[in-house]
Amino acid sequence: MSLSPDVLVIGGGATGAGTARDLAMRGLDVTLIDRGGLCSGTSGRSHGLLHSGARYAEADPDGAAECLEENRILRRIAGACVGETGGLFVGLAADDEDYFEEKYAACTEVGIPAERMDPDVARELVPELAEDTERAFRVPDGVVYPSRLVAANALAAEEHGADVHPHAPAESVTVEGGSITAVDVGGEVDGTIRPEYVVNAAGAWAGEVASMARLDVDMQPTRGVMVSVEYDGLGPVLNRCRDPDDGDIVVPHDSEAVLGTTSVPVNDPDDYEQARWEIETSIEECAAMLPPVADAPVVREWWGVRPLYAPDETERGGRGISRGFFRLDHAPDGVDNAVSVVGGKLTTYRLMAEDTADLVCDRLGVDAECRTAERTLPAAADPDRLDEAVAAFDGQGPTDADVVETAD
What we know:
- The protein has two domains: 2-43 and 146-219 and 321-400, FAD/NAD(P)-binding domain (3-Layer(bba) Sandwich); 86-142 and 222-306, D-Amino Acid Oxidase, Chain A, domain 2.
- The longest helix has 17 residues, at 61-77.
- Helices cover 29% and strands 25% of the residues.
- Strands 6, 7, 8, 15, 16, 17, 18, 19 and 20 form a nine-stranded mixed beta sheet that branches. Strands 10-3-2-14-22-21 form a six-stranded mixed beta sheet, sandwiched between helices. Strands 1-13-12-11 form a four-stranded mixed beta sheet, with no helix packed on it.
- It is an alpha/beta fold.
- It catalyses: a quinone + sn-glycerol 3-phosphate = dihydroxyacetone phosphate + a quinol.
- Its EC number is 1.1.5.3.
- It comes from Halorubrum rubrum.
- Its cofactor is FAD.
């Protein structure tokens, strides 16, 4: 197969699929490839929180505001790709009251709707909330079902003329005269793609993709564990209101609760330890907020790898609260038709895609506005069709395996 699109997007997670959708909606000829099924990397192995921005409000108010805006956009356009749950920030007796007050004040400053709740009222929402809960406030968190979200973005890209190829790994990149002229692709493509522009949206693997073009994208991936346990009807997302630490979030699904997470640097996003202590710590710490999960049957366990940009993480000390994104234009590095987009959060994937598409259009001389915030995703009101698309793109991740129904 030989293709000559305007843009080749490498990486079929939320950001890559979102970028392909955005560019295709602006009238460009787009090809999207991924080495595995869509959503097989970080997006499909997250805890699936739809951030209100509250987790970042005091340390990264600009990032918190981005989360809040994108949260509202996804609720409008994504339908069955998200769950409307709400969220609680919970302060236990052992937790710092000053931190709670700082968090609440920061939410108010950013504009995040935050409602103080008496602990007894919080227990009406979550009857099995810990007895030593002393403080709580409510925020508009939610849940993302990433398998559906990525599939919906890929469907939208296809509807606007894009070619989408899962199981099509980039194998080599040819750079001539300061431009990428060819990308050899294996798997289901098994041929050469000659794009005018290349978007590296490979997440934690962005450094490996960049190196094929003799570019340096210095990633510092960190692993985090998620544990899904049987727990019916939790209601809101639970966030431990303390300095970020292991086991400080519980994300509800219909009959399960996802407990997480840890943050441990890894050298290779494909080869890293999966330590038992991470599972045990996440369960123990989450049980401090919601005691019954300590003994709840475990349904599945999985690790994800965050696509963190090393210069930012070094500045912030490793477990930095920022999960901001970075658009790396490679023209100053000697390759004038390539950009890498790294970092970020699942909640802000659409914004990351818009920012990246803006650069690509500027470079290609395309005068077209982003429309992804206004246009509803395909099949947003039809979960059965979404799940069929997940199967077609081989896009099932563990995060929402109990929600998405695909044929065996």
